Every structure is written in structure tokens, then in C-alpha cells.
Amino acid sequence: MVISDYNYFNCPNINDTAGYKSSNFNMEDFTRVYGIEITVKPNPARGWTTFNYQLPDDIRKGVIKIINVYGKLIASIDIAGYQGQRIWDTRSIEPGIYFYNLYTAGFSKSGKIIISK
What we know:
- With 117 residues, the chain is mainly beta.
- Helix content is 6%, strand content 49%.
């Protein structure tokens, strides 16, 4: 039906939030499907640690940001390529708990690393 150059559609009734909520969505599965992965070894680290990463097929750049428990940026490591490995020298880093985040093209993945001496 066309009324005054506007299209009209009688929308079906959807109860409550059933139309936009799903309890089956898992962000970990979503990022795994799209290929963003990061691992850190050894963890706990003493003098160095290695970030192994994999990006989605069409993404070739990203950044790994490492922050302390107070939210202060400790290091920023640029990455390039579909997959690779970056070594982080932790000899001058204070022992403690740190968080890393891999950011790329709207995706991110995070984890925790422990620095011990």
C-alpha cells in the first residue's frame, strides 16, 4: 500500500526484548571466527616475553598496548602482517600484574601478564 509517496508496512508485534537479545552470543567465539588471536609466553615473564598474534585475513596492522593495574600505559608495540611474533623486553619493568590489549580494525583482544624477577 502506498500513501502519499511513503511506503507503509504493518510490523509484527514482538514481545519484550526477544527481537534484539540473544543469550547465545559469545565474543570469544566471534573473535576466533574473525581470526584475532594473541598469546603470551612465558607468562609469568622474567626478562622477556613473546606476543604471538594472528589478525583477520584482510587486516595487516594493529597495536599491542600494555597497561599496569592503575591504567597507566607502559608500552605500545606496533604490529604488521597477518601473523607474527613480537618480543617485549621486561628487564626494566617493575614486577607485578599487567594487562595487554591487541587492537586492530574495530576488534580487540586482551589478557593478563605477570612480571616476576
